[in-house]
Write a structure and sequence with these properties.
Blueprint (H helix, E strand, L loop, with lengths): L1 H26 L2 H22 L19 H19 L1 H22 L11 H18 L3
Length: 144
């Protein structure tokens, strides 16, 4: 149950953050806004690290495979693409497309066992679930 609540909170926070970042971008610029997001996130992470045990930073140098350290780079790309998509599509449509893209990408990662994740077997119900999500996008976008 805790995982469900945390996932729901994450989705809500991502949508609110996207709207906030889009508003900051309108008053500054894309890179100023994205930089501010990453800088403030770094400050929060450092503060949390200081108050929660100060695990060894040097452990980062033992992380394998090395490409998994690119999460921060991907995070910057996420910030920029969320800002741009919310600015051009609006929060609801952008969030819908983002979530469906996440769902499809996550399923393919599991299906093929990519990036060290455990490989799962193909299930028709998941495939049809993806189709329902895609149909949902079409219905959401559909204008009379």
């Amino acid at each position: 149950m805790a995982g469900i609540i945390i996932a729901l909170a994450s989705g809500i926070l991502m949508s609110v953050q996207g709207v906030f970042n889009t508003q900051v971008t309108k008053q500054t610029s894309l890179w100023v806004s994205a930089g501010w997001v990453q800088l403030t996130a770094l400050i929060v992470c450092i503060a949390a690290w200081l108050f929660t045990g100060r695990q060894e930073i040097a452990a980062l140098f033992q992380v394998t495979p090395r490409y998994v350290l690119l999460g921060g780079v991907i995070g910057a790309a996420i910030t920029v693409t969320v800002i741009q998509s919310m600015n051009s599509l609006g929060p609801a449509q952008a969030a819908l497309l983002i979530v469906v893209a996440q769902l499809i990408a996550a399923w393919l990662i599991e299906l093929f066992g990519l990036f060290g994740m455990e490989k799962t077997s193909f299930e028709w119900r998941k495939f049809f679930g993806m189709l329902v999500a895609i149909v949902g996008i079409v219905l959401f976008k559909w204008e009379k």
